[in-house]
Amino acid sequence: MQIFAGSASQKLGKNIALLGKVRLEKFQNGESRVQILEEKVDVEVALLQSLSDPTNDRLVEFCLLADALRRKGAKEIVGIVPWLGYSKQDKVFLPGEALGAKVIAKILQTAGITKLITFDLHNRAILGFFDIPVMELSAKPLFLEYLQQNISANVAVVAPDEGAVKSSGYFARELGVPIVYMDKRRDLVTGEVMVVGMSGDVTGKEIVIVDDMIVTGSTIIETAKYLKTKGAKKVSVCATHHLFVPGAQEKLEESEIDEVVISDSVEGTETDKLKVLSVAKMIAENLT
């Protein structure tokens, strides 16, 4: 199967297979311009693009590439969108808001993809927004394998909030280690979140925190700081999607967190503290 990639996922694409040739440019007015440069395009192809920042540009580029592939003869297009942009907008919280995740689902389908492969959705209810087959893969097996090779015997998984209880429990069971639950309270006036207690002792332990994404990093930075004050020896964080806003990575590098393990669902550069694991093999296995 031929694989084509947009500008957001060139590096990941090259780790999967030899990419089909495309031209990705901008017109002087800022509009995206794409061109499929392959003389022949297969009936079934794959199109790879994470909808990372700048999300709207990535989305339009993906749609233009899908249209260009159809005009070159592709009949079946497997859309590979490791990070599904707008997936945090999975609910209408206030009157008058849009249901962003459902809108994006409609746009991708209108662009002509016939199947979608994605990773670790913020809410699995998003699967119901699509009328095409959706395969949700997970980076969790990559994290488990990495942790099993790099942690000591004195480890605990910490669930930093209610939303992380399920995934944290899974990791604790697979690693055969205890789980510690953190009790947090939000000030309804200021919005500030404070840790008020924990369900277990972390003294001398290596701590593993698991989440689906990191955006600002503020919550896990404060969590790690609290855990260190309670005697934690090391704090490692695993997150599938690193959606760092400006300054977030610098704050993580300077924080009490000892290690951040991410996938390449969004392209990133490894540092002394940041470890990147590739989902390329998982994607390739699910394209055959």
Strands, total number: 14
Could you give the order of strands across the largest sheet?
10-9-8-11-12-13-14
What structural category arises from helix and sheet content?
alpha/beta
Question: Which spans have pLDDT < 50 for at least 5 consecutive residues?
Answer: none
Total domain units: 2
Provide the succession of SSEs: EHEEEHEHEEHEHEEEHEHEEH
The profile of the biggest β sheet is:
7 strands, mixed
Provide the CATH topology of the largest domain: Rossmann fold
Which of globular, elongated, flat, extended, rod-shaped describes the shape? elongated
CATH class of the largest domain: Alpha Beta
* Quaternary assembly: single chain
- C-alpha end-to-end distance: 8 Å
In helices, the fraction of residues equals: 25-40%
CATH architecture of the largest domain: 3-Layer(aba) Sandwich
Q: Could you explain how this protein is built, in words?
A:
With 288 residues, the protein is an alpha/beta fold. The chain folds into two domains: 2-137, 3-Layer(aba) Sandwich (Rossmann fold); 140-278, Rossmann fold (3-Layer(aba) Sandwich), CATH 3.40.50. It has eight helices and 14 strands. Strand 8, helix 5 (165-175) and strand 9 form a beta-alpha-beta unit. The termini are close together.
